[in-house]
Design a protein that fits this description.
Structural class: alpha/beta
Number of helices: 18
Largest sheet: 15 strands, mixed
Number of strands: 19
Shape: elongated
Keywords: Coiled coil
Radius of gyration: 43 Å
Helix content: 25-40%
Length: 588
């Protein structure tokens, strides 16, 4: 009662029972005295009525005379009448107070009901659905694989461990709102597998997360809910002979995510790449409407050594028009890009790899082959991720691309992962990206002997440097690099001050990520270099301040530099260690 009256200090009469009892006893005496005072006129009339010859007659019950006793009875009757009037006044006062008490109780109950109605939880809390969805998604991807609860042999009374995930407990709880359950189911990936892929999906398990729902395509009719309507559902297709017949059963259903691979099927008489071509031909319209299209190359059976000829043919005939494409993302090896070209005329995000072959004991990377294929969609791509590819096929003979650069006019993001420095230099020197704003470089270590003699003898850069990248992409806003411990520090040193011409490299740069995440003493120069970059660019009017930074954490060392970074960088993340987990970027 008193917790809302912060500006007043109330006495013990509101909370202390002993104080309340003492006060009520005292006020009762005062009230009775006041009641007697109210009836002084009647008391005086009684006194006057029994006065005789100026003296009050003594009337007691013990008087023996009848007259005296009758007078005593009459006097008592008059007192009874007066006291009964006082009692009636008290009764009416009590009645009035009780009525007021009931009215106050009713008003209190009404107000409390209004408060309760406002506090009753709605089916979904006040958080927006999008934020709730992100919370549920984070729970899914952050929880590791849970083992099956088992009772140890010979311990029948041993309690089974509840190994359900947090989201599974929500789904099993009857108190969980229906809206929540629906939202959770939409965030848990569901894998629908075709024949031959029932267990094969585990080979790419990180794509689906720690514990997806799995349903065989032939059992889909037994599921009451419409799984295919959910945006988190993926169709995992094994390139077997009968796959096109099996997919007919869901042709009229929505397809959100399609994953393709090939697992050996001894009963199949068709070559997997022929099955793939039939799939594109028969279901091209469905594939062109998916959100996410990926091919996982597990075996070389889908390798088509004719892909360069196909790419050249498509370019020569102007075969760049295809179906109207909905997906913004595709993950395909380069030799399959020509096959899927009819359904990806407007692709914007592509993840692919560098073709690699094995020739006379040497591994050969074919950068020109990759660029020749990428020319098919260079005008629409806004994001490219390129990694090392599998060794497959034999060296292909193709038309020479020439020395002209391949233009990617819309490209804003470029990520080169796990490539040797030679391959990175070849790719960067062969492309034009006037709109590039985000660059990611993660390189394998390489020595000078790995560089071609032509690179060493010509003006082509032989090392990745800040000035080299600035010459190619001067408008970069974000750089993520893992060049090596000392190379990262040297790269950052070039960003900490103007170049020899007096101009700053990457003046629009505001986001950086450096370091592998492995803490070592050798990386201390990296910490000092990045601190200098942040400080000097903050003092210059010619550059943007560093807004976001991710860098290796240095515990117990160089705390002054770490504190300075925390002070000057609004969004800073110290990477504690290399962690290979499901991660927030897993899945689709």
């Amino acid at each position: 009662m008193v917790r809302y009256l912060k500006g007043f200090k109330l006495s013990g009469l509101w909370t202390c029972p002993r104080s309340i009892e003492a006060s009520c006893a005292q006020r009762t005496k005062e009230l009775l005295k006041f009641a007697d005072a109210m009836f002084e006129d009647m008391q005086k009339q009684i006194d006057d009525a029994f006065e005789s010859d100026g003296e009050e007659q003594s009337l007691t019950i013990n008087d023996s005379s009848v007259k005296t006793q009758r007078l005593a009875v009459e006097k008592i009757r008059m007192f009874l009448h007066m006291i009964s009037m006082q009692s009636e006044i008290f009764r009416r006062a009590v009645q009035s107070k009780q009525d007021k008490l009931r009215a106050l109780e009713a008003e209190k109950s009404r107000i409390e009901e209004q408060i309760e109605e406002r506090l009753i939880p709605t089916p979904l809390p006040t958080l927006p659905t999008e934020i709730l969805g992100q919370i549920f998604s984070h729970l899914y991807w952050s929880e590791s694989v849970a083992p099956f609860p088992r009772t140890p042999p010979g311990h029948s009374n041993f309690p089974a461990v509840d190994c359900r995930t947090t989201l599974q407990r929500f789904l099993d709880d009857d108190a969980t709102p229906i809206e929540w359950k629906s939202l959770i189911n939409k965030r848990i990936p569901c894998v629908i597998t075709t024949l031959g892929a029932e267990e094969g999906w585990r080979t790419i398990a990180p794509f689906f997360g720690p514990h997806p729902r799995t349903i065989r395509l032939r059992d889909l009719h037994e599921v009451s809910e419409d799984i295919l309507e959910m945006p988190s559902t993926a169709i995992f297709i094994n390139l077997s002979e009968r796959v096109t017949r099996d997919l007919e059963s869901i042709r009229q259903k929505p397809w959100h995510n399609v994953l393709l691979s090939e697992f050996r099927d001894t009963d199949s008489s068709e070559v997997p790449r022929e099955v793939l071509q039939d799939l594109v031909q028969n279901f091209g319209e469905k594939l062109s409407g998916v959100d996410h299209l990926s091919f996982f190359e597990i075996s070389p059976n889908t390798y088509d050594d004719r892909f360069l000829a196909q790419a050249s043919s498509l370019m020569d005939t102007g075969g760049t028009e295809g179906l109207s494409l909905k997906p913004s993302y595709a993950c395909l090896p380069p030799h399959l890009i020509p096959t899927f070209r009819p359904i990806m005329s407007n692709i914007t995000e592509l993840e692919t790899s560098v073709p690699m072959t094995y020739d006379f004991g040497d591994t050969i990377t074919h950068i020109d082959h990759l660029l020749q294929v990428l020319m098919l969609c260079s005008n629409t791509l806004t994001s490219i991720v390129i990694t090392n590819g599998q060794i497959s096929g034999t060296p292909s003979v193709s038309q020479t691309r020439g020395h002209s650069r391949v233009s990617f006019p819309q490209l804003k993001r470029l990520s080169l992962n796990a490539l040797v420095e030679r391959s990175v230099l070849d790719i960067l020197s062969a492309i034009e990206c006037p709109s590039l704003r985000h660059l990611t470089l993660s390189m394998c270590s390489v020595g000078t002997s790995d560089l071609t003699q032509s690179q060493l003898n010509t003006g082509i850069a032989t090392r990745i440097s800040a000035s080299f990248l600035h010459g190619l992409f001067p408008d970069l806003e974000s750089i993520s690099a893992n060049l090596g411990e000392f190379k990262d520090a040297q790269f950052l040193s070039d960003l900490a001050s103007p170049s020899g011409s007096g101009s700053w490299l990457f003046p629009l740069l505001d986001t950086m990520k450096f370091g592998s995440g492995c803490v070592s003493v050798a990386q201390l120069p990296l910490l000092r270099a990045v601190t200098k970059v942040v400080h000097n660019r903050m003092r210059s009017d010619a550059t943007k301040n560093i807004r976001s930074l991710s860098i290796t954490e240095f515990r117990g060392a160089e705390s002054t530099d770490c504190d300075a970074l925390r002070l000057f960088v609004p969004e800073i993340r110290f990477i504690p260690d290399v962690i290979h987990s499901w991660g927030s970027d897993a899945g689709w």
